[in-house]
Structures are given as structure tokens and as C-alpha cells.
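Morning. Coffee machine broken again, so started the prediction first thing and wrote up yesterday's gels while waiting. Chain of 169 residues, entered below exactly as on the submission form.
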Amino acid sequence: MTKKQFALLCEPHLGTDPAVELRAIQASDQFKLRDWKNRNRQFFFFKELISESAQQEWFGRYLTRDDDYMFVVRAEECSIGCMGIRMLEDTWDVYNVILGELRFARKGYMRRALQAMCRWAAELRPMRISAKVLKDNPAINWYCRNGFRIVSSHVDYVEIEWDGAPAHS
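Came back before lunch.
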């Protein structure tokens, strides 16, 4: 499936929840994605500030990777965050899950978006879904409440795996 086919597949949103839209990123989303990542860089492996040119280079490379999907999460007619999922070897890897607009915290939008993205990936290509999360990232608990479990611990990070069963709805 090409990026163009994927973008068309996702209109108007991925999943069945009318309150949350997952839209394939577009070139026009780059400023917002860079801003969100830079503001939250302490929670990611890459901690350097991302420049405009570096963001554009990343986006150009992203467009060439067929098994790499980045979404803008929308709710209440606003772009509130982003999340991605990509295939690495024989595993789906969840990455760059960012609530960019904090006024939308604790409303369940990101949880519903994450569940929709994981279900979509599992239907597209059934395989393990995992992520690596830095140990000092408070999102570990959020992931565990939303269908992931810790499967291994390393010096700086934990590896988590989605089992599709959130601890609570």
C-alpha cells in the first residue's frame, strides 16, 4: 500500500469512534509535529531540538517508507497530538505518541486513538505490537492502563507489548 493509498483509506478518520480522528500526516503538519516533539523531547530517546530542515528531511524519508504510518490525532475539531506505528522486522513498533495540546488530557481521546491505531495495524498485518519507553517517562503507566504490558526491562527503558485488553475502559 502506498502512502497515497493509505491517506485515502484514512479519510475522514481511522477507526469507528466518531469523537476521535486519526489522519495520516501531511506536509502541512510538520510544524506542529516538530513543536510537539521538541516540547516533549525529554521523554524520547532522541533529545536534541529538531530544526525545521531536520524535520523536512525526516518527512522526506518518512514518505519513502511503506510500512511506517504517522497520524495526527484530532478531537473536538482540533489537532491534539500524534502517534505512529511502523514495521520493524516482524513487529509493529509504536512510536512518537504525543499529546501535544494538554487541555485535552484525561478525556480519553489519546487512549481511543491508540486503541484504533493498534487494532488497524493488527488487522492490516497480524503480528506483535510493541514499543520502547524510557523508564523516566510517566507514559509507561498510561500504556499499561491501555492494553500494553511490560515484557522486558533494560538500563534506560522498558519494552512493552500490546495485548489489546485495556485495564479499564
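The radius of gyration is 15 Å. Going to sketch it on the whiteboard this afternoon.
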